[in-house]
Amino acid sequence: MTDRRVPADFPRNQDLGSVTGVQPKLLVREVDGRYRSGLTEEELWVRYDACEDLATQLSVYALRKISTSGMSRDVALSRVEKGVRLKVDSSEWDFSQAEVVWVMKRTRQLLIAATDG
User: How confident is the model over 94-103, as pLDDT tens digits?
Assistant: First the structure.
């Protein structure tokens, strides 16, 4: 069975959007007959799993770039982050800015473990 715990440092707040007007508004959605303003535990797990998978793929990619081109770890990570941000900013990938920060932090951890360990 898969361990479905989401790390405490993983972003949990999702921006559902905004509504204009004079009166304050709370954006909610109906899930299983109840109104929710955030992610369900299942939705949170799916987002975390996608981010963890991306971080793993990015660390392997960065490690390959370090090995083949001789670039430093910091340069490789910087280039990887630039590419990720371009994909997210162009709406090719659906990650929040907080998730991008988390993915890059996790990618760095995995890359350090692979190169120093």
Answer: 999 999 999 9
* End-to-end Cα spacing for the chain: 27
Query: Which two tokens mark 49?
Result: 């799993």
Amino acid identity, residue 4?
R
Instruction: Give the amino acid at 114.
Output: A
DSSP state letter for 5: P
User: Do 39 and 14 meet the contact criterion of CB atoms below 8 Å apart?
Assistant: yes
**Bridge partner list, 36:** 29
Q: What is the pTM assigned to this prediction?
A: 0.82
Give the torsion sign (CA, 63, 64, 66, 67): positive
- Under 8 Å CB-to-CB from 106, ≥6 apart: which residues? 51, 52, 55
Token pair, residue 43, equals 């939705």
Two tokens, residue 40: 């369900």
pLDDT (tens digit, 9 = 90+) per residue, 67-90?
Answer: 999 899 999 999 999 999 999 999
Q: Write the Ramachandran bin of 28: left for phi over 0, alpha for psi from -120 to 50, otherwise beta.
A: beta
